[in-house]
Structure formats: structure tokens, C-alpha cells
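Page 37, continued from 36.
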């Protein structure tokens, strides 16, 4: 009985520790910070601006509406952009704030499930 209680206690402590770990996140923002905004290349379809070790901005120019989510696979952070077509041919700028965790080694961007290269990568 004591072993079972000990195992449950250890599992509870480990679960609580994992809740405090920062998780990768992506959220669309209306406007990038001024220092990031100065680096935006309006001719690039996909741009990544590193702000610091854990925060970056993904800028995507698209003719459709976009939804984004992130998924972690080992040290790979996958950013999934789902684009749906619109009636208009106007290109819209979508800016996403990406928060990485300590274990991110590389980033892959997928648009509608297809891996795409980032046109411009810059940092502050």
C-alpha cells in the first residue's frame, strides 16, 4: 500500500512540474512591435523575425483567410497554417507571435499540410 501511495505521489509531483513548463504557442496579433515592423519585407510571402530566444514573429502574406496552430515533435516545432480561399485577390498580411519552449531545436512551417521554406529569416 505504501508503494502505491509513493508512486501516486511521484506521479502527481511530475505532473505538476510539467504544468509549469512553458509550452509552444502561436497567436495572431493585430500589429507587430515597432522594431519587428521595421524588418517586415512586404515582398516575402513567409518571414520569420526572431525577437529573443523564446519569442519570434511569423509574417505571412496570403490571399486567403488563415488559421494557425503549433505542434511539437521532439525538438521540432511545427507551425501549421491553414489557408482557405477568398473571393478577393487582395493579399493580406497575417502576423503571428510564436512562443517557443526551451527544447526547440528547429522550426518547420506547413501551409495546408505542405512543408514550405521561409523566405526571410532575421533577428533583432
Amino acid at each position: 500500500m505504501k508503494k502505491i501511495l509513493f508512486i501516486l505521489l511521484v506521479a502527481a509531483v511530475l505532473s505538476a512540474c510539467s504544468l509549469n513548463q512553458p509550452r509552444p504557442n502561436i497567436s495572431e496579433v493585430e500589429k507587430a512591435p515597432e522594431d519587428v515592423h521595421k524588418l517586415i519585407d512586404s515582398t516575402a510571402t513567409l518571414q520569420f523575425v526572431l525577437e529573443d530566444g523564446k519569442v519570434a514573429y511569423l509574417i505571412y502574406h496570403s490571399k486567403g483567410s488563415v488559421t494557425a496552430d503549433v505542434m511539437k515533435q521532439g525538438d521540432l516545432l511545427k507551425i501549421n497554417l491553414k489557408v482557405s480561399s477568398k473571393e478577393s485577390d487582395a493579399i493580406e498580411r497575417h502576423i503571428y507571435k510564436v512562443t517557443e519552449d526551451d527544447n526547440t531545436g528547429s522550426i518547420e512551417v506547413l501551409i495546408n499540410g505542405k512543408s514550405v521554406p521561409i523566405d526571410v529569416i532575421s533577428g533583432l
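Residues 57 and 97 are 5 Å apart (CA to CA). Flag for discussion at group meeting. The chain has a mean pLDDT of 84.
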